Amino acid sequence: MAKISKPQSCLQCPYKWKYLNLLSDKDINSIQSNCTIINFKKGETVCKQGTDATHALYLAKGMVKLYIEGKKNLILKLIKAGEYIDLQTLFGDKTYKYSIAAMDDTMVCMINSDHLRGLAQKNSDYLFELTKTISDSGNYFYKKISDISRKHLRGRLADTLLYLTDEIYKTREFNIGMTRKELAELSSMSMENAVRILSEFRTDKIISIQGKEMIPRYSIGYDFLNDFLSNHIDFHDLFKTKIREYNDKKEKIERFE
Q1: Residue spans in the chain of domains classed CATH 2.60.120.10
Q2: Is 255 exposed, middle or buried (0-12, 13-18, 19+ CB in 10 A)?
Q3: What is the CATH code for 3-148?
Q4: Distances (CA, A) of 121 to 30, 51, 231
Q5: Which residues contact 6 (CB under 8 A, 6 or more apart)?
Q6: Of 40, 71, 144, 221, which sits most exposed with the smallest number of CB within 10 A?
Q7: Are 205 and 247 in contact (CB under 8 A)?
Q8: pLDDT digits (tens, 9 = 90+) for 160-180
Q9: Is the pTM of this model over 0.85?
């Protein structure tokens, strides 16, 4: 169950937003009386799609997922610690357009939206960083929609693996903190298709998965995924041909080394 507390000091907080120092010490301290800290356990709902948004949500610890609810959920993106979870409602529609859930144990700062808007109006540099964050998020969503509509299943899953590699874990080997169902929802496909394609990637030595735990380790065939799988190619035979060419080239390099 979520635990609620009040912040001790926003000015001295080790988890504060990287642009918070654009505000004066007085303004930073004023956030403290307009903020509530809530600790969520893994799997708990942070906010629900369709509910009123009265606070800006800042993720101090952990990771959350933004997803659209339906017969099959669609995970739009993952948010890491040190980022605002949702700023679209700060200057726009005051209703959450998606649900947010904790991927692990998280700490969320809920800041009164009216107060945050007031601080932004007084400080143009701070306002710029807030609006830039909103713009970057919008651009991400546009790309996500484009990828879903134009790419084949392998391309979608390849994109997801590259997204986890480049944006979330920032390494080519990582312990993935999600189930295969969530991996499928992030790739906009059924779990059956995700499992099948992961198996094909593993068989063709594009990735390796060690163990069958909830947190398997993925070693990404990064260059192959980046150069080929994220393109719009639908021909399975060509896919297999390119796989063989890639593995032959890799084996020659390994023998040379």
Answers
A1: 3-148
A2: exposed
A3: 2.60.120.10
A4: 15, 26, 43
A5: 32, 35, 36, 37
A6: 71
A7: yes
A8: 999 999 999 998 888 888 899
A9: no
